[in-house]
Amino acid sequence: MKALVALLLLFASSASCFAESKYTVVNVDDPQRLELFLRDDQGIPFHRFGKLSSWLQARDKHLRFAMNAGMFEPDYSPVGLFVARAEQLAPLNLRSGRGNFYTKPNGVFLVTRDGPRIVESSKYSEQLGDVLLATQSGPLLVEHGVIHSRLSAVSKFIRNGVGVSGNKVTFVISNEPVSLHEFATYFKDELGCEDALYFDGTVSALYSSELGRNDSTVDLGPIIAVVD
């Protein structure tokens, strides 16, 4: 599998994808090409990849890859930290609560001019550098090569998340229901990600022009994308 990933990366300058029976994987080898989207110019949430794609096309841009990127409130605003184009639009959320987002430790996926990182939420700081984008979610799946012990091995859903290894960012969505522990194990053992963060389940969705895929089942909040 890792040989296949490496082969695909040789032929792509920004993103590459492959699908197997259980997971679909998107590797981004230039993290600074990533962008976060939430609302259009009128402040209306994009909700669906198709609407985002049309909005970009009107600006002579092409949506290559997109995925839901963090949990959201009933009004589709982010539950936690959200930084897009170096502007913080929602603050860090360190409160306690119920649900996956509040399962501690949760974390932040961010990209600075020095590269991508996943950090435990309480360790996030603007002092990390010039933050170009950031999205907070939870729980953390893998931290410094260790799978977190509180992850359920029983409850199974379609799930998606992000992993980081060096300067490479890896996005994964399961093609069938999996447990959080199984999902974390895939990031660590099969993809070699030192750190990984859960984005969501049930609403998990993927857009890939390379794979001809455009999931459109429910309205979404934060969306992460690669745009040409």
Q: State the total count of DSSP E strands.
A: 17
Shape: globular
Name the strands of the widest sheet in spatial order.
Answer: 1-2-13-12-14-10-11
Cα end-to-end separation: 27 Å
Structure overview:
By secondary structure, the chain is mostly beta strands. The protein has one domain (2-227). Helix content is 13%, strand content 37%. The chain has 3 helices and 17 strands. The strands form 3 sheets. A 7-stranded antiparallel beta sheet has the order 1-2-13-12-14-10-11, with helices on one face. A 5-stranded antiparallel beta sheet has the order 3-17-4-15-16, covered by helices on one side. It has a 5-stranded antiparallel beta sheet with strand order 6-5-9-7-8, with no helix packed on it. The chain is globular, with a radius of gyration of 16 Å. The two termini are 27 Å apart.
Quick synopsis:
The protein is mostly beta strands and about 230 residues long. The chain is about 15% helix and about 35% strand. It has one domain (about 1-225).
Record the SSE blueprint.
Blueprint: H1 2-10, E1 15-19, E2 23-28, E3 34-37, H2 49-57, E4 63-68, E5 82-84, E6 87-90, E7 107-112, E8 115-120, E9 131-137, E10 140-143, E11 146-147, E12 159-165, E13 168-174, H3 180-190, E14 195-201, E15 206-208, E16 213-214, E17 223-227
Antiparallel strand pairs: 1-2, 2-13, 3-17, 4-15, 4-17, 5-6, 5-9, 7-8, 7-9, 10-11, 10-14, 12-13, 12-14, 15-16
